[in-house]
Amino acid sequence: KLARAQYLVRKDPKDCALLYLALNRQSVLMGLFKLGRDDKDKALVEFLARNFQEEKNQMAALKNAYVLMGKHQYNLAAAFFLLGGDLNSAVGVCAKNL
Q1: What is the pTM of this model?
Q2: Which of 24, 62, 66, 74 could pair with 84 in a Cys bridge, judged by C-beta atoms 3.0 to 4.6 Å apart?
Q3: From CA 38, how far away is CA 24, in angstroms rounded?
Q4: SS3 string of 34-97?
Q5: How crowded is residue 50: how many other Cβ atoms within 10 Å of its Cβ?
Q6: Closest-CA residue to 81 (of 97, 72, 92)
Q7: 58: exposed, middle or buried (Cβ count in 10 Å: 0-12, 13-18, 19+)
Q8: What DSSP character marks residue 24?
């Protein structure tokens, strides 16, 4: 309910990405990005469709998380750390920056 409420405030799936991934609701998040109006969101749909059990996809998620950290998008960076399987970094980003 909290993730849904956070999405409904601005209709931006990036705002609730961390909560949905923490709840292991990746498919719901993909659906929200499909509904998004931004063309950049379409690339995120393709990225989220990957199998993050594979190491190469986990590494891609971690690389994207570090890029997002550099852009000061901490909420989304923490979500990508979760996708990459690095719980410690996700918690660290939340504790230090959110």
Answers
A1: 0.90
A2: 62
A3: 24
A4: HHCCCHHHHHHHHHHCCCCCCHHHHHHHHHHHHHHHHCCCHHHHHHHHHHCCCHHHHHHHHHHH
A5: 15
A6: 92
A7: middle
A8: T
